[in-house]
Amino acid sequence: MKMHFDVVIIGAGIMGASLSYYLTKLGLKNIALCEQGIPPGNGATHKSGGFIRIFHENEWYTKRAVESYDTYADWGNKIGGSCGFKKTGFSFITDSTRSDQLRANAKKVNRYCSQVSVLSPDEFQQFQPDFSLEGIGAIVYEPNGGYADPAKTALTFIKQSEKKGMKLLEGVKVERILHHRKKITGIQTNIGSIRADKYVVANNIWANFLLEELGLRLPMFKKSIGLGFIEWDKEKSVSHLTSCIDETIGTYFRIFSNYRLLFGVQMSHSGALLQDRSYLDYGDMQIAKEKLVGRLPLLHKGRVSWEQTKFRFLYK
Ligand SMILES: Cc1cc2nc3c(=O)[nH]c(=O)nc-3n(C[C@H](O)[C@H](O)[C@H](O)COP(=O)(O)OP(=O)(O)OC[C@H]3O[C@@H](n4cnc5c(N)ncnc54)[C@H](O)[C@@H]3O)c2cc1C
Prior knowledge:
The protein is an alpha+beta fold. Helices cover 27% and strands 30% of the residues.
């Protein structure tokens, strides 16, 4: 196999996958994408909630969300294939202590997008009757928000860039970045060494294992979030539910399929604050379910299941 490329990207989560797509779109053909697992890998992309929303409380994120929204909304024409975007609407719920702050932030977001508005609990309940209004101060709502399928999104980017010549190296773990006299000379992998003109380290929190040897350390910290699912009575579809971040109960949720909801589980129960805990226990799930049912009483008979996960990101 040819082992010299113009660019080698390490990590095929959403960052590596989209980068490989846009580089091939710019005309570069001789690119390799190394993923230690099977794309989209076993990192954050695989577990992400995939919310599509313009409203963020950080202006930098809002601007990026505005720039990328049209790509998700018109994925078939812009990228090809599907990213699984479902326009369910997006809601951000807060309590009365944060209502004024939320209103002020929504106003800032309105400079970039007029679709974001602040609703009173009563206005919200008119089209989301299954929500209990307990503890809600204000709600930011955007009708064009929703969620995409993060794994599908990454895989589509990969597929489209492969069509343009990108070489996907599945099951290839980068073990070391080779260097000599302050110059990168290659990467050592489980299938041998690979050389390139440029290297992109896009392997999320694992980047520091590779960068350490170069005397670099990215300022990352980790945050654990559990991923839960709740299934309910098949008599009642809840496909009309908005995708939601609910600060008052400390979680987010969205439809996963017609009778299944995906939700985030705060891992702050009992021993969860131990630095390295990456698993969920029954106690975490019971607390999470109780809070969720408080907001969506129709889920009270729902059966829960869960997946463990670690969520880590770069802090700016
Ligand atoms: C539970 C959860 C919910 C989330 N919800 C949202 C959300 O709603 N909205 C949002 O915007 N973001 C969300 N995120 C965050 C978002 O998913 C991440 O920011 C994003 O997926 C990071 O992508 P990435 O490509 O940088 O990293 P990753 O997806 O982690 O990809 C890194 C890849 O590198 C590979 N790799 C690691 N080391 C090596 C090596 N040495 N050699 C080869 N390959 C290697 C890994 O296998 C992995 O596939 C969520 C994350 C989690 C976990």
